[in-house]
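With this grant's support, the team has encoded backbone shapes as discrete tokens. A representative record is reproduced below.
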Amino acid sequence: MTQKTTISPREELVSLYLENLDMITEGSPDILNRFREEAIQHFKLLGFPSVKNEKYKYSKIESLFTKDYEKYFAPKKISFRIEDIFRCDIPELDTHLAVVLNGFYFPNNGLTTKLPNGIIISSLAEAARNYPDIVGKYYNAQAENDTDGLVALNTAFVQDGVFIYVPKGVVEEKPIQLINLLLSTENQLVQYRNLIVVEESAQANVLICDHSLSPMQYLSNVVTEVHVGANASLEMVKMQNEHNDSAQLNHSYIVQERDSHVKTNVLSLHGGFIRNNLKMLLNGEGADAHAYGLYLADRSQHTDNYTYIDHAVPNCSSNELYKGILDDQATGAFFGKILVRQDAQKTQAYQANNNLLLTADAKVSTKPQLEIYADDVKCSHGATVGQIDREALFYMQSRGIGEHEATLLLMFGFAHEVVKQVSIESLRDRLDDLVEKRLRGELSRCNNCPMNCC
């Protein structure tokens, strides 16, 4: 009797890499290729993070990779109407638009757009060829390939993504919108990379939308690296809105230089499995960071947020607020760490995580954490897990508002504290509408989508 041997998902992916190395590297610029070998070695050593890793304590990662996914090493020709995207739940805004389809930049108007003020919006692979000095300086400068197997896996396999460059002194008021689309007739594993560079005294708003347009199983493993120069300003909003058969693994790295201002807002409206990693390094005095997040989950959905804010130098400030509303059997987690290094005197850092559980079966784990080595600082952190305030609910009912509507109003007010931090008014209004529909149960994943793929 022949004994059947099975290989682990780690071994399968390493074999996939080695067997398709020519396809992965062919046509890819040297800037992407030169990190692959080291990255795959790191992945072979590290593998997938397990629950024994405190950072991933509340998310089982390896099981996501046991499903049968197709992995493509070249973009497939797929036609779709851009109007169908905007008929779905992605807001149609007055933006500079870039689209990534199944991990590859979609050349709607060519692979590179250069605005009159010098801003570049491009395929990452194309930018590495056309602007090697810029891309080479910042690509893979922050990614933790040697400590996180998922990041190393991305670095080994990545072939494309989006490059956004805002030159020194340029203030762009029109938002840059990046739409990540998943559309296929097969289950897919996609891995792509985003690189955003905002030079000294520049200013930009970036909106990232994650969306699935077909009812297949998807697993996305994405790394985004951001560098914000001295006295520069960046607001980055990420809206996650995919169906229940999707899993997202997101890793965002942000470095801030002197007197820079960064605001991030991660809004997880829908998705089967969502894991968001955010690491912010305050690397210059006067740097100011604001990190916000909202996660809404129901049925058996799982959303896990990990944040790490590193105060490396004196006179910096950070403010962090994440909120979650969980219904049915949904699970969630928040692990937020603020590090204040020994030389980072005069630091101000505040962190809060608040959660509402709507059923006895919904669960959330929360761990806010401060690690302080300086003595002249102002820091605080806290977390709450609870239900709808019964006194507030009674007060509203006593004023003639029905229990159901009063409950919805209280939940909406709870969530709006995060949504109101979005500075783009038209987007903020649209997000308020989406959150309200989600809370009412009117927004499945694609409330207005003509493709009926949920």
Residues 47 and 149 are 5 Å apart (CA to CA).
